[in-house]
Amino acid sequence: MERAHQIDYRVYGDDIQFVEISLDYGETIIAEPGAMMYMDADIEMDTIFGDGNRRESSKGFKGILATAGKRVLSGENLFTSTFTNKAIEKKSLAFAAPYPGKIIPVNLMDYGGQLICQRDSYLCSAKGIEISIAFQKKIGVGFFGGEGFIMQKLRGDGLAFLHAGGTIIKRELNAGEMLKLDTGCLVAFTAGVEYDVQFVGNVKSALFGGEGLFLATLRGPGTVWLQSLPFSRMADRIFSASKKSNSGASSKGEGSLLGSIGIGNLFGED
After folding, report:
1. Do the domain assignments include residue 241?
2. Sign of torsion, CA 15 223 120 4?
3. Average pLDDT of the segment spanning 207-230
4. pTM summary value
């Protein structure tokens, strides 16, 4: 496996974060298209198929195409962006989170060189990290696990940066220890964790409890990362609120004092 570039970084912000990465001469960072916030002038940007991993590139065009195809299956863009420092001195660039939440730096060497994560959580990584797909073998997980049959697999010996919504919690599970959670709150887990889904067990709770029909189950040993505010949950609340606002704003004047008074009434118009 290709040795990942060793990079330095610093995370800024609280609820809406960005990560600034410092590159020595010749070092490269791989990122999702559109994630870059700013960069020094001597950093060269390029767009490539797949993740630029040398193992796949050594197989020629078919290997590159296979890597790019895996990204499409996992719900990601066909291309990735590369940023390489061409200056002798150290240069910096930054990547911003796409919505409110936290950036999670993970050194894959600390977790056996492999991590499974949800499809939209990957932000960027050092060159040499392989980004592939992880199929869920259990049918129940594929249909009801919130992420479908396909998740992302990160492999390598360097740094990768994930992003998730709200507050992030990291849990260490002992062998046989099980954790139940909302399917959307899962961010990532190490290779030794067993991922499954479970019916809530109570029809009344399933229909009226607001937690859905199924819960995700994670069984140790291993490490898991959870998020308090999945993007899907936030999007649903925004969509629901916008529907209520559009249907009732004209009659109720919701949203402002001027709306409740009526602009015409304010100026004495009929």
Report:
1. no
2. positive
3. 79
4. 0.77
Residue 22 lies in a domain: yes
Residue 206: strand, helix, or coil: helix
Between residues 233 and 82, the one the model is more confident about: 82
pLDDT digits (tens, 9 = 90+) for 153-204: 899 999 999 999 988 999 999 999 999 888 788 999 998 999 887 766 655 5
SS3 state of residue 87: coil
Rounded (10°) CA dihedral 61, 73, 103, 218: -130
Q: Domain containing 147 — which CATH number?
A: 3.60.160.10
What DSSP letter does each residue of 50-62 carry, written as one string?
TT--HHHHTT-HH
Residue at 63 is within a domain? yes
Cα separation, 86 vs 43, in Å, equals 6
- How far apart, in Å, are the Cα atoms of 205 and each of 91, 211, 212? 54, 8, 8
